[in-house]
Structures are given as structure tokens and as C-alpha cells.
Design goal:
The chain is built from eight helices and five strands. It is of the alpha/beta class and 204 residues long. Strands 3-2-1-4-5 form a five-stranded mixed beta sheet. β1 and β2 form a beta hairpin. α1 packs parallel to α3, α5 crosses α8 and α6 crosses α7. The chain is elongated, with a radius of gyration of 22 Å.
């Protein structure tokens, strides 16, 4: 069999290489092949870390599904800064096969990455609900209460009725069981997805 070119190795290593290709690349003395092989190893390590993170972030949802639950909604908000302005909240219900590895706390993502993820989240989610509290509501209620009202609105706007809410450090005024998490957007895939949705809708 003719020796593969460096360009062929680069292409093969970039597209789910077989064990045979990996072994051949590892043993190939050419500098270009070794560079491509090292890039593959770094990408594989990064991918494995994302898979591990998603599995950790899906733990609460998987526990809920394992107990027979169907719809769990993650809820988050954007806009609760010192200057009272519109508060945008989002409630997101994800599927058990949710596989968007790069979904994470929106504050950890660039604006470009959030924009890339939004259509994917909307496509993969079972349901997405948005709630908004404007400046007048904030002035009338205070920022904390206005956020709670907006979160309740987001839940109400879901197309399905969740039986559990995962909420980032808040209590939503709806008669649904809730689990409040400190820094929940770094602990739950549902809340992470909601944080991205809220951030994106809040900056449009």
C-alpha cells in the first residue's frame, strides 16, 4: 500500500480516525504528520473534557428522569445589575439525549459562541419560555421581586408543564417543586441553556 501523504493524514485525523490511522500517524516520523497527530490528541482531550462536564451538568436532570419525572425546567435570568433595567428570564426544558457539549454558564462564553448555540438549543429543547420584567415593574416591585415575576412568566410560557424547576439561587412564585442552586448555571445543563437563552434575548 502506498504511503499516505501528509495532507491525507491531516484529513483523516480531522475526521474521527480509526485505531489503524492513529497508530500509523503515531509511528510516522514526518514532522507534518506528528504535528497533525498532536493536534488530534489536543482536540480529543478537549472533547473528552466537554463530555465529562456535560455528564456532570446533567446529573440533576438524570436523577429526576430516573425517578420517573418527565419535564424538568432550568431557569435563569439576565439584567439584575445595580442599574435597574429590563430583566429577561428563560426557562428551558431539555431532552434526556441533550448533547450540546459547549453549553455552559453564559458568562463563560463569548457572544459569538452564544449566538452559535442559541439555534441549536432552540432546536434540541423540548420547550423554551421567556419572561420579561420592564423598568416600570422593577420600580414598582424592586429588582428581586420583578425577577421572580419574570421567572414565573417564563415557566408559564413553556409549551409543557414541568414538575420540577432547577433555579439559579431564586424561588419562583409558582406551585411547582423547585431545587435552588447557588451558581446553578455552572451545575445544571438546563440552567446553563436557560442562561444562554436569557442572555441572548436580553441583548437583542
Amino acid at each position: 500500500m502506498p504511503e499516505r501523504t501528509i495532507a491525507e493524514f491531516k484529513q483523516l485525523l480531522a475526521d474521527q480516525p480509526t485505531e489503524e490511522i492513529l497508530m500509523a500517524a503515531q509511528n510516522d516520523p514526518r514532522k507534518g504528520v506528528q504535528q497533525a497527530y498532536q493536534r488530534y490528541l489536543k482536540q480529543a482531550e478537549k472533547h473528552a473534557a466537554l463530555v465529562t462536564r456535560l455528564e456532570q451538568h446533567m446529573r440533576l436532570e438524570r436523577d429526576f428522569w430516573a425517578q420517573g419525572g418527565q419535564y424538568v425546567a432550568g431557569i435563569d435570568e439576565v439584567g439584575r445589575g445595580p442599574l435597574a433595567g429590563p430583566v429577561v428570564t428563560a426557562a428551558v426544558v431539555i431532552r434526556p439525549d441533550f448533547d450540546l457539549l459547549e453549553v455552559n454558564d453564559s458568562k463563560q462564553l463569548t457572544a459569538k459562541k452564544r449566538l452559535e448555540l442559541i439555534p441549536k438549543i432552540l432546536e434540541e429543547a423540548v420547550a423554551v419560555g421567556i419572561g420579561i420584567a420592564d423598568a416600570q415593574q422593577i420600580d414598582r416591585l424592586n429588582i428581586y421581586e420583578a425577577t421572580r415575576v419574570a421567572m414565573a412568566q417564563a415557566v408559564t410560557n413553556l409549551d409543557v408543564q414541568p414538575t420540577l424547576l432547577l433555579v439559579d439561587a431564586m424561588q419562583v412564585p409558582v406551585p411547582i417543586e423547585q431545587t435552588r442552586l447557588i451558581k446553578g448555571d455552572a451545575k445544571s445543563a438546563s440552567i446553563s441553556a436557560a442562561s444562554i437563552v436569557a442572555k441572548s434575548f436580553g441583548t437583542t
